[in-house]
Design a protein that fits this description.
heterodimer; A: mainly beta; 4-stranded antiparallel β-sheet; 12 strands; B: 112 residues; mainly beta; 0% helix; globular
Chain lengths: 114, 112
């Protein structure tokens, strides 16, 4: 069975601080995919990134970066120089490599204070 | 940008009524998911389709929920009869096998 754990329920940071959102996953599959989604107060779910299990390279996109470590089953997300617009709930998700059933974590609510 | 379109955006209905939610996936996407989001349960997978065929609907209460894809441009989720505990936001998502998934804006269902 697949499982995604986001232990941080809520995080508050002051604008311009860096913040890391943790994601730990469990799966028996050797091929799998990991995702991060953002849900701003408006409610929509916005796709941020997808990473497959064979690609452990870290990725940077502007102020966003992702650290994938298979050894610790973690796929952490860092926002550098946070901004108020980053305030949202962030979900980590996992899908198997076959049917690709996507399982979401419980989300981390990030509040960036001006 | 291509979008997943969900209708209605909001729905208020009385207990016992039938509710139908619709989703238009992005053209060319072969995988469609239905999720339900509540404060208590978070995002729960209800059902998903690949090339219009249902792959897994184990997350759905079978006695009252049904999901179909009558054609490649339409996915439906029906609740009959609806109950107050069905109040939630229902999301549809579509994507290509092996890639990320795009979510619709959701249908906020309130059953009174």
């Amino acid at each position: 069975a697949q499982k995604v754990t986001q232990a941080q329920t809520e995080i508050s940071v002051v604008e311009k601080e860096d913040v890391t959102l943790d994601c730990v996953y469990e799966t028996r599959d050797t091929t799998y995919y990991l995702f991060w989604y953002k849900q701003p107060p408006s409610g929509e779910l916005v796709f941020l990134i997808r990473r497959n299990s064979f690609d452990e390279q870290n990725e940077i996109s502007g102020r966003y970066s992702w650290n994938f470590q298979k050894s610790t089953s973690s796929f952490n997300f860092t926002i550098t120089a946070s901004q108020v617009v980053d305030s949202a709930v962030y979900f980590c998700a996992l899908s198997d490599g076959g049917y690709q059933k996507v399982t979401f974590g419980t989300g981390t609510k990030l509040q960036v204070i001006p | 940008d291509a979008r997943v379109t969900q209708t209605p955006r909001d729905k208020v209905t009385e207990m016992g009524q039938e509710v139908t939610m619709r989703c238009q996936p992005i053209l060319g996407h072969n995988t469609v998911f239905w999720y339900r989001q509540t404060m208590m349960q978070g995002l729960e997978l209800l059902a998903y389709f690949r090339n219009r065929a249902p792959l897994d609907d184990s997350g759905m209460p079978k006695d009252r929920f049904s999901a179909e894809m009558p054609d490649a441009t339409l996915a439906t989720l029906k609740i009959q009869p609806s109950e107050p505990r069905d109040s939630a936001v229902y999301f549809c998502a579509s994507g290509l096998f092996g890639f990320g998934y795009t979510f619709g804006s959701g249908t906020r269902l309130t059953v009174v």
